[in-house]
Design a protein that fits this description.
The chain has 115 residues and is α+β, with helices and mostly antiparallel strands. It has helices at residues 5-11, 13-23, 27-37, 42-49, 54-66, 94-108; strands spanning 40-41, 70-75, 81-86. It has a single domain, classed as Winged helix-like DNA-binding domain superfamily/Winged helix DNA-binding domain (Arc Repressor Mutant, subunit A). β2 (70-75) and β3 (81-86) form a beta hairpin. InterPro entries: HTH_ArsR_DNA-bd_dom, HTH_HxlR, WH-like_DNA-bd_sf, WH_DNA-bd_sf. Pfam families: HxlR (PF01638). This is DNA-binding transcriptional regulator, HxlR family. Residues 13-112 form the HTH hxlR-type domain.
Length: 115
């Protein structure tokens, strides 16, 4: 059977798309914070993430909302209140996030000093 590189590349397209989104800087940490701590407003998210720029946070939130990973809840108060929360879709990443958290603690946690 001839090797069809087009079929092979299409076969990996869903994984490539998922990994491209997850690998973009700040995305996993942002999702992790919302998953573990619940819905947050923009300023609160920015404080919880630390060194993220306003521009990058805005870009990530828009990307994740467009992918159906986040919900943006707008309250027309003065000033307007916008709250971000994860969608049920992101809960499918629960096992992955928990395992990454465990690995991070094992590799880089308080008890590890460069080991």
């Amino acid at each position: 059977m001839p090797h069809d590189s087009t079929a092979e590349s299409n076969e990996h397209e869903p994984l490539q798309k998922l990994l491209t989104i997850l690998a973009s800087p700040w995305t996993l940490l942002l999702l992790h914070r919302l998953h573990m701590e619940g819905p947050k407003r923009f300023g609160e998210l920015k404080r919880r993430l630390g060194a993220i720029s306003t521009k990058t946070l805005t870009e990530r939130l828009r990307l994740l909302e467009s992918e159906g990973w986040l919900l943006r809840h707008y309250e027309p108060t003065v000033p307007p209140q916008v709250t971000y929360s994860i969608t049920p879709k992101v809960l499918e990443l629960d096992g992955v996030m928990i395992e990454l958290d465990r690995i991070a603690e094992r590799w880089y946690g308080k008890d590890k000093k460069g080991s």
